Amino acid sequence: MILYLHGFDATSPGNHEKIRQLQFIDDDVRLVSYSTLYPKYDMQHLLNEVHKQLRLTDDPQPLLLGVGLGGFWAERIGFLAGIRTVLVNPNLWPEENMGDKIDRPEEYADIAHKCVTDFRTKNRQRALCLLSAEDELLDSSRSEALLGQYYQVIIDRQQPHKFPSLSSHMVAIKQFKQA
């Protein structure tokens, strides 16, 4: 089972396309949707929804994959749920770059600080990170500098921020899921 967390643009047709691509790895790909506008409530909703989905599968190696803002959540929810994650251009600092899009961007900083102390150290090697060298929205070098200390990072030289095609990374994602 692969649980898919969309980015801020929840209705983007690219979400359906990525889910379809992920079905080449696992037939059971499930979208876990959330509001994107209310971080405090999104956190609780996502924790509950992921735990519910984990109870409904017999897959011994489920995977959580998040894109953009979904990557922010996937890293934390995956850690708290004890499952491996794939982070695709994760928005690690939404409080800095989404202030004009959501009501309370400071809640993201609050969530980041309230997560388990040194959670990335405790989660070492339990996430795979795909970053676009040509990300037009996020500073991928900043993300690489932070996440590269803890996780395997793959830099993609072709894909933009929304990462429409996972195809060149399917083997790496499948191997990571099965590891």
UniProtKB/TrEMBL annotation:
<dbReference type="InterPro" id="IPR008886">
    <property type="entry name" value="UPF0227/Esterase_YqiA"/>
</dbReference>
<dbReference type="InterPro" id="IPR029058">
    <property type="entry name" value="AB_hydrolase_fold"/>
</dbReference>
<dbReference type="GO" id="GO:0016787">
    <property type="term" value="F:hydrolase activity"/>
</dbReference>
<dbReference type="Pfam" id="PF05728">
    <property type="entry name" value="UPF0227"/>
</dbReference>
<protein>
    <submittedName>
        <fullName>Alpha/beta hydrolase YcfP</fullName>
    </submittedName>
</protein>
<keyword id="KW-0378">Hydrolase</keyword>
